[in-house]
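Per reviewer request, we include the raw input and output of the structure prediction for the construct analysed in the revised manuscript.
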Amino acid sequence: MIIITGATGFIGSCLQAKLYALKEETIIVDWLGDQGKWRNIAKHAPDAVIAPEALDEFLKTAKNVTAVVHLGAISETTARDGDLVWQTNVDLSMKLWKWCAEHQVRFIYASSAATYGGANKASEFTDNHSIIHQLKPLNLYGWSKQVFDMQILKMVRNHQPTPPQWVGLKFFNVYGPNEYHKGKMISVVKVKFDDIVQGNAPKLFKSDQTHLADGGQARDFIWVGDVVDMILWFLENPTAISGIYNCGTGQARTYLDLAYAVCSAMNVDKTVDFIEMPEALKGQYQYFTQANMDKIRKAGYTKSFTSLEDGIGQYIHDYLRKSDSYL
């Protein structure tokens, strides 16, 4: 049995779909809520759904658990409630870590590329454990993920009890189906698609960096299917090396590349409107991200990653343009 927290969310529901297809027994820890998130798991229901507030009681008697995949978190980069973020992203994560260590259950959890903060060179996006303490996140969300990463590494250094396998995955910019509930945190791909559907040119933020042209901001965009494949690889390889790993493609692409790829997939002219960046994002905006994927490759992961153009084409043609856009 595999426990997945946050499994009615974006990445979690895509993982649930794959495990359902593999006929794995799964327990979801999440709220279905009243915003239609049930649709994310409608085609691949789990064996049970446990509300987060009932998790402690459930774990007291849980048996035959082979792994916990902890994806539940407050993931808004603009989150402001520090106490709630700490309770959710740090305290809950540590509770699950300690339970997995005590019961010798494998533990895979979501870290984030937001931990890299203001890094702007490819050489700075390394998942080497020795430099993680030097990272300077730009927002509360990234800081909370950084805190938990550092707590884990400290426990490992001090030879405290650990799960038999533990993996933290620093997700970069993930896009794909089942993200529709994410509001302002939805992927740029979906936002640009909506711009065009509404009869407008896709909008991008102007650059407020003198050395960077409008649309030149670049991120490591990764198709959600590739993220799921990486999680599955760890689940299928319990003896794989434990540690914190980047989860990106290793290739930064500009927002202009992305906008043009959406235009191409929708057969419209490649035109873009540039707008001012909101004040709320200034000082918290990452202008460049690119995952260094050397460590996961050395660990034995060999699958190739979906190109931005192919991923966007698949997302638009197989999901967004369908009457039922859910995975």
